[in-house]
TrEMBL record:
It catalyses: (8S)-8-amino-7-oxononanoate + S-adenosyl-L-methionine = S-adenosyl-4-methylsulfanyl-2-oxobutanoate + (7R,8S)-7,8-diammoniononanoate. Its EC number is 2.6.1.62. Its cofactor is pyridoxal 5'-phosphate. Pathway: Cofactor biosynthesis; biotin biosynthesis; 7,8-diaminononanoate from 8-amino-7-oxononanoate (SAM route): step 1/1. The modification N6-(pyridoxal phosphate)lysine is found at K286. Its main location: cytoplasm. It comes from Phycicoccus duodecadis. The gene is bioA. It is found in: Cytoplasm. This is Adenosylmethionine-8-amino-7-oxononanoate aminotransferase. Coiled coil: none annotated.
Length: 438
């Protein structure tokens, strides 16, 4: 279709391409990307020209180094010269073994086994399956998971079942999905003291709820400190400590879903590092390959791995076709090298300062309920549902690419975004909200 002009490409897209969370009856207009480099996307104009915008989204939070990164390009080219893929059943290779070794060196203490998966959602599927098999092998099957409202864990069936069944993105499937146990959403605010009255009340309710269902709970699953697609909700580390205490007390496992929050997105390497305890199972993805290829991983303790393996099946019953894809693993290794070389925690702290100062003016807008930042995450929460197409268009006119949802206009920019581009990005976001919502 290279001979088609931008109008023809967009017309074909509108007629035949089904985009995420979109209607085939009333599709929204997409923007045609010609290329990407650094932190900028080149959007193709109908007249054949190009309009550059700063990417405020890191391509859904994964392109942490931006685009056309020389080190990642080189890793991909080098691996293509060796092999792009081989099956992982009965075979192994250096990129996968090297990546597992790197991940375990970076992981919270106690995690010793890694299962490589295709995507973040699949890694959550694998984690939940491992928790179920762990208890089944122990002769005491448990079939339910414990979590908090407001979470999001992916779009496949098991992750959907632990996403908020009322206000979440998958409420439509309520009644079809397995029903798990949902504690109230924790009170907002990362700096709440342990004796904060709202936090104490939440803890009391949560402890009572867990006790009522303890014999059925296989694992607690939670996004540490920051709930992503469920609403960019930030809560205190004490919440994690309470959930860990309950799991330990009642023989359940703990799963940290760090797909969105891992690799310094909230500041520390793992958002869960703010808590006193480490998980039995950790899910990682998104930033793992720097946004180049889809890859995720489930990390677990030796106790979990051996417990699952002692069961009737004799192993973890999962095996994706593209598990351990050499090309993705090679790029992931190069990505982890970059994260280490760039002092990423300091880089994210710089981005956080830029987001905090640049988004602060939004608090004075009549349409804005709250402005909050955490690490390389900046959120402007409106008092009404965001008019997505209008805000997106207004931001593009100001040189910024955004993808708002619900009542949130937010940014998770690449960690390498310069101070000047952060200023442009935040001004464009605040200006777009002011233009559309006032």
């Amino acid at each position: 279709m290279d001979d088609l002009d931008p109008d023809a490409l967009l017309a074909y897209d509108r007629e035949h391409v089904w985009h995420p969370y979109s209607s085939a009856l009333a599709p929204t207009d997409a923007y045609l990307v010609e290329s990407a480099e650094g932190v900028r996307l080149r959007l193709r104009a109908p007249d054949g020209g190009a309009h550059e915008v700063v990417d405020a989204m890191s391509s859904w939070w994964c392109a942490v180094h931006g685009y056309r990164v020389p080190e990642l390009d080189a890793a991909a080219r080098d691996q293509l010269g060796r092999m792009s893929h081989v099956m992982f059943g009965g075979l192994t290779h250096e990129p996968a073994v090297g990546l597992v070794r790197r991940l375990l060196a970076l992981a919270p203490a106690g995690l010793e086994h890694v299962f490589l998966a295709d995507s973040g959602s699949v890694s959550v599927e694998v984690a939940m399956k491992a928790a179920l098999q762990f208890h089944l092998a122990d002769g005491r099957p448990r079939t339910r998971f414990f979590t908090v409202r407001g979470g999001y864990h992916g779009d496949t069936f098991s992750p959907m079942s632990v996403t908020d069944p009322v206000g979440g993105m998958h409420a439509l499937f309520r009644g079809v999905l397995p029903e798990h146990v949902f504690a109230p959403r924790p009170p907002a605010g990362i700096d709440r003291a342990d004796d904060d009255p709202e936090l104490v009340a939440w803890e009391r309710t949560t402890r009572d709820l867990f006790a009522q269902n303890a014999s059925e709970v296989a694992a607690v699953i939670v996004e540490p400190v920051l709930q992503g697609a469920g609403g960019m909700h930030v809560y205190a580390p004490r919440v994690l400590d309470v959930l860990h205490e309950l799991a330990r007390e009642h023989g359940a496992l703990v799963i940290h879903d760090e797909i969105a929050t891992g690799f310094h997105r909230t500041g520390p390497r793992w958002a869960g590092d703010r808590a006193a305890r480490t998980p039995d199972i950790l899910c990682v993805g998104k930033a793992l390959t720097g946004g180049y290829l889809t890859l995720a991983a489930m990390l677990c303790t030796r106790e979990v791995a051996e417990g699952v393996s002692r069961g009737e099946a004799g192993g973890l019953m999962h095996g994706p076709t593209f598990m351990g894809n050499p090309l993705a693993c090679a790029v992931a290794n190069a990505n982890l090298d970059l994260l280490a070389a760039r002092d990423t925690e300091a880089e994210v702290a710089r981005v956080e300062r830029g987001l905090a100062s640049g988004l602060a003016p939004a608090a004075s807008l009549a349409s804005v309920a709250e402005v909050r930042t955490l690490g390389a995450v900046g959120v402007v929460q409106l008092r009404e549902p965001v008019r997505v197409a209008e805000v997106t268009a207004a931001a593009v006119r100001r040189g910024v690419w955004l993808r708002p949802f619900r009542d949130l206009v937010y940014t998770m920019p690449p960690f390498v975004t310069s101070d000047a581009d952060l200023a442009l990005l935040t001004a464009g976001l605040v200006g777009a909200v002011a233009d559309v919502h006032g």
